[in-house]
Amino acid sequence: MRFLVVGGGAREHAIAATLVRAGAEIIVASANANPGLERLARASRRLDPTEPTGVVALARAESVDVAVIGPEAPLAAGVADALRAAEVPTVGPSQAAARIESSKLYCRELLARAGIDAQPAWSAPASIEEVESAVARFPGPFVVKPSGLTAGKGVWVQGSDFTDPKEGAIYAKSILVQGGRVLLEEKLDGEEFSQMAFVTDSGVYPMPTVQDFKRAREGDQGGNTGGMGSYSQRDHLLPFLSSADRDRALEVLARTREALAQDGNPFRGILYGGFMLTARGPVLLEFNARFGDPEGINALTLYEEGDFAELLLGVADGRVDPNLLSFRLRATVLKYLVPPGYGDRPQPGGLLFLDVEAIEATGVHVFFGSVDAAGPGTVKLGSSRGVALVGEASAIHEAGARVESALRFVKGDYYVRHDIGTKEDLARRWEHLRRLRAPGAKPSPIPLSVAPPEAAPSSAAPPDRLLG
Ligand code: AMP
Ligand code: GLY
């Protein structure tokens, strides 16, 4: 089968690598020449992936059987619609269904209309005059979000990105002045997790749950980024996440699939729920209409036993064979190597020297993102996330240690979060939720209409599976 992969980042490198393992041929449509994709592709074309005409022309010229759209921007620009109109089966929702990601306001309104009660308190002031009164209605800290796409970087959280509510109000007004819509949300306390699933007419088919590290620097300091790294646990849950929590999140995905279909926007692609696990259960922060970057790479690394090409064809056609959904029972840790200053003021152009063979010989996978080839074993860092290294093992901290050990084969000026996947960081997150869920813990300032809290973990020590 011949696949068109739209997009040129590490996520698309991982999609292509998983397809190649299933015997598929790859054609790439991307703005950049990703060295990883270049190596795998039968043909590769430089084009604007958000411009439907060029993408469709390439799909036709190369007679592709299926198209897979990696990033959000082409989905928001209607590239999936154009491919389907040209009778190319496509993994990726229509422009209208992709509004679940490209318009946070549409997402909140859709869930409210459908009675899906896993939302924070939120408000969408329509004019500058309404901002002050909307801010005043939040009894506690709040979050300001542009409704449109911001590559994970436009969200301001009180306590991290601003202190005084007045600053939040000014930011909200500035978004309105620029002609956008803005959302104000209650600031939730908890641990985030990403639940992705293949979603099509026949249902919702889950992937392993992943935790992403959004903040640029260690200890969750610094600005919000697209994600500095991520991990997944051997049993496909997370140290702080029970199967009941995960099932609750999957129910939100299933009900959202139905709500989209009822709204006349059926979804064929990858639906990604970004949740906060709070004292009262999982609450939806946002939906994405695609594989997470990096979270999708963790899941794809674990996909081996089924036939990924058949699986994606099924998603595109609207019928998935559940037997094709097979993820290995291993923990994964992914760390992104990024240019110095990434998250605030990135300094692109630095050279990285990687001995890819030596890294892969240690069992660590290498996926290229925002880099240009610059000679044998050398890449030049762009201004975004450069190279993803993924380790696997039976325990999360061992997978993290494998990535750390592979760093000896990388030279150059880069930044990486060493704390991702360490025992200390995992224990801190587990303890955070234990405290939040303990009987007598201070409740959220606003009553959330979400599922009742699970019983608090009874022991004061992290469970064994935290380390397994
Ligand atoms: P989003 O693009 O909506 O996922 O927001 C980006 C990041 O901002 C999330 O991953 C969270 O870390 C943070 N965030 C968003 N909404 C909230 C919220 N209501 N409460 C606390 N943190 C939030
Ligand atoms: N890692 C967050 C995202 O893919 O949007």
Shape: globular
Q: Indicate the CATH topology of the largest domain.
A: D-amino Acid Aminotransferase, Chain A, domain 1
Q: Which class of secondary structure composition applies to the elements?
A: alpha+beta
The CATH superfamily of the largest domain is ATP-grasp fold, B domain
User: Which range does the strand content fall in?
Assistant: 15-25%
- Which second-level CATH architecture of the largest domain applies? 2-Layer Sandwich
Provide the helix percentage.
25-40%
Reported for the largest beta sheet, the result is: 5 strands, parallel
The number of distinct structural domains comes to 3
* CATH C-level name of the largest domain: Alpha Beta
**Which molecules other than protein and nucleic acid are bound?**
adenosine monophosphate, glycine
Report the end-to-end length measured between terminal Cα atoms: 38 Å
User: Low-confidence segments, ≥5 residues, pLDDT <50?
Assistant: 445-461
**Overall pLDDT metric:** 93
The total of helices stands at: 15
Tally the beta strands. 24
Strands ordered across the widest β-sheet: 3-2-1-4-5
Alpha carbon gyration radius: 21 Å
